[in-house]
């Protein structure tokens, strides 16, 4: 089976070729430089860039895999959630190719693709669903923070999600308050690596709540007021590092504590984590430390599959085919608000 997948839910134009569980190619064209001067993703600019890049990215992906359109057995594309105009570019391109070549089309939930991305491992990357086991899954990025109970393959429910800012959004907004360049999360992490995480005690929203939901707006506001009342902290290199380290520690503690707590409560032996924020080294190390402490298996998405990419979209689509899940059909539309589950 040869499958071509497209991902354009936000500001990454990505095309992948997947064959028999192996990601042959996973080409990603980033738009970071384009949006840098605006301090965030501008939907109209993102859509124009997808239009500009998609043809060449698809051509490169197929050329690297040594295949042509006639070799493709099925197509997949992110159907939602995401920016409406950005989603439309990739999804309609996949619809057109599937229609012309008379091949099936699979619309893929972006969150679900992240959910199963930790099971893509190795070099070359391949689906390792033979290692799959029920888990608590943390999906965390700039746009979403979700905690899900994966009871079996293709059987998952959402336990909680963010009630306001996502964790990655909190990273980026705090970075912006400090004056760091876009994207702010990685820049904040770099500064935090040399700081004292105990220097300032920022709130851990909903940490003690029985709910599995997250909230990061109050943490961001607390940092804003701290900077307002202590402006000199931004003029000191050590003070800036301590501020970043303290804010990062607060975000990570909430993510790790609530994830591990859910796993223990539901007596699940495995924890997975995916999404762009999972690239954060402190989050990865703290998850590893706490899972080891409580006897939990930890499966982290490889860093190349944490951020938005078509490889995870293709792997999930191929898995649906193997599990005899019907194709989406050519008449469906994008759904910017597509839900992961109940």
Layout of secondary structure:
Layout: E1 2-7, E2 12-19, E3 22-30, H1 32-36, H2 43-65, E4 74-80, H3 84-101, E5 105-109, H4 110-116, E6 120-121, E7 126-127, E8 135-140, E9 145-152, E10 155-161, H5 167-178, H6 184-192, H7 217-229, H8 237-265, E11 270-274, H9 281-293, E12 297-300, H10 310-322
Helix pairs in contact: 2-3, 4-10, 5-6, 5-7, 5-8, 6-8, 8-9
Provide a short characterization of the protein structure.
This protein is α/β, with parallel strands linked by helices.
Structural account:
With 342 residues, this protein is of the alpha/beta class. It has two domains: 2-125 and 305-322, ATPase, nucleotide binding domain (Nucleotidyltransferase, domain 5, 2-Layer Sandwich); 134-301, Nucleotidyltransferase, domain 5. Helix content is 42%, strand content 20%. It contains ten helices and twelve strands. The strands form three sheets. It has a five-stranded mixed sheet, sandwiched between helices. A five-stranded mixed sheet has the order 10-9-8-11-12, with helices on both faces. A hairpin with a 4-residue loop joins strand 8 and strand 9 (145-152). Helix 4 crosses helix 10. It is globular, with a radius of gyration of 20 Å. The mean pLDDT is 96.
